[in-house]
Amino acid sequence: MFVISLIIAVSMVYVGGIAWQRNEFLLRYGNKAEGIIFKNNLVKGMYYPVVRFLTDKHEWITEELNTGYQRARKEGEKLEILYNPENPIQFEVNSTYHLQIIPVLFMAAGLILLSLTVLQLFGLIELYRSGGTQLQWPQLIQLLSDDTLTHVYSVADEKVRTMTVER
Fold first, then answer.
1. CB 49 within 8 A of CB 40
2. How many CA atoms within 13 Å lie on the side-chain side of 4?
3. 139 backbone φψ class: left, alpha, beta (φ>0; ψ -120 to 50)
4. Does residue 116 belong to any structural domain of this protein?
5. Is the pTM of this model over 0.85?
6. pLDDT by residue (tens digit) across 99-143?
7. Which domain range does residue 146 map to?
8. 11 and 86 housed in the same domain
9. Are residues 145 and 93 in the same domain?
């Protein structure tokens, strides 16, 4: 379970970071264009709009967005596109939600999962299916105040009084 959680957490941080970098590049160096939703592709219950726009070099680009929606977007709907002038098929909808919020949410969720996985790995937090969370406060306080890494390895073996926190 630890390995799976660790892989998922690291993957979420990585994917969010890559998207953040790509979007920052588009914000800094990308060109704006007005696009329209040409059609919607239905893939595994999600609608992925196909967008068509004209570049500064008068090239028509018709590509599917990376972001899917639960409902189909209206065909013919206009939206502002930000695209890479060197590679116009790298584009995104020019909105704070698409360019910044989605990548930050991915990274934040990954970091939270990574933190919980590490705490559980060292025996500082125990997650139960019943809905309660068992925190081992004395170990956590001692770990945070101790300067040596060797203490981390002994924490998991110590028997201490625990406190149960219900959600």
1. yes
2. 1
3. alpha
4. no
5. no
6. 999 999 999 999 999 998 888 887 777 654 445 555 555 555 555
7. 122-167
8. yes
9. no
